[in-house]
Design brief:
It is built from seven helices and nine strands; from the N terminus they run ββββαβααβαβαβαβα. The protein is an alpha/beta fold and 241 residues long. It has a single domain, classed as 3-Layer(aba) Sandwich (Rossmann fold). The protein has a nine-stranded mixed sheet with strand order 1-2-3-5-4-6-7-8-9, with helices on both faces. β1 and β2 form a beta hairpin. The longest helix has 27 residues. It is globular.
Length: 241
């Protein structure tokens, strides 16, 4: 991990950009005392997602956490995958035509992304936990929900996850969802135009966690109420402290 830039935000949060190999990322901290870390998942490039990411990070740091994120494969400045671009175009055509999204399209789009992104998140976690200002336990928040599912199964350092039910999940991953046992809080936008609501409800039902909570709010994909940020901080406070 190499830090490439830093700035102090107006609320005192220290924002540092880094690279992990060729993967860009951002770390947000406040103070020198070690803080529990929340990994901020997201569906796209860091530049495009930055306004939403920094708002989430500052909210979490104000509650006593550190926050970090990395750029997903095929997003931002990272090399594109022709197969993923083709699958994404097929998905958009199906949605525009009001047709059901074929499982084969979802598999082509999501499964390779999960297979590549999850090892990258784990490598980032290795590097972040080596910093003196970061400590466990770890939380995972947001992002492509299929990535969160896989991480919750394979990464024992993640103690709790706040998942956003706003993206498609391959049905093959439902068996992985049954293996998830950490505490979960799942956000679902009831009128999300790009999400299969019933699939999201079925996924929630499949999770094997004894503690799992579903927060369903009216509105589209980007209409998550602000109070859910406070609810998320309370969730992580219960499980990371």
């Amino acid at each position: 991990m190499h830090f490439t830039a830093e700035q102090r935000l107006d609320d005192g949060v220290l924002e540092r950009e880094f690279t992990l190999g060729e993967i860009p990322g951002i770390l947000w901290t406040s103070g020198s005392a070690p803080a529990p870390l929340i990994l901020l998942g997201h569906p796209g490039g860091l530049r495009r997602m930055y306004p939403r990411l920094v708002a989430r990070a500052r909210h979490g740091v104000a509650a006593g956490f550190a926050a970090a994120t990395i750029e997903l494969p095929g997003s931002g400045d990272r090399p594109r995958s022709a197969a993923a671009e083709e699958a994404r175009a097929d998905l958009r055509r199906a949605l525009a035509a009001g047709q059901p999204v074929d499982d084969e399209i979802v598999n082509r789009l999501v499964l390779p992304l999960v297979d590549q992104a999850v090892p990258e998140w784990r490598a980032a976690l290795d590097a972040l936990l080596a910093l003196p200002e970061i400590r466990g336990p770890i939380g995972y928040s947001g992002g492509v929900i299929a990535i969160g599912v896989r991480l919750a199964v394979v990464e024992p350092r993640i103690a709790a996850a706040l998942l956003f039910a706003g993206s498609y999940v391959p049905r093959a991953m439902f068996e992985e969802a049954r293996q998830v046992t950490i505490p979960l809080q799942v956000l679902l936008q009831w009128d999300d135009e790009g999400n299969d609501r019933q699939l999201a409800l079925d996924l929630f039902d499949a999770f094997g966690s004894r503690e799992k909570t579903l927060h369903a709010n009216m509105g589209g994909h980007t209409g998550v109420p602000e109070f859910e940020g406070d609810a998320g901080n309370r969730f992580f406070a219960r499980h990371l402290r």
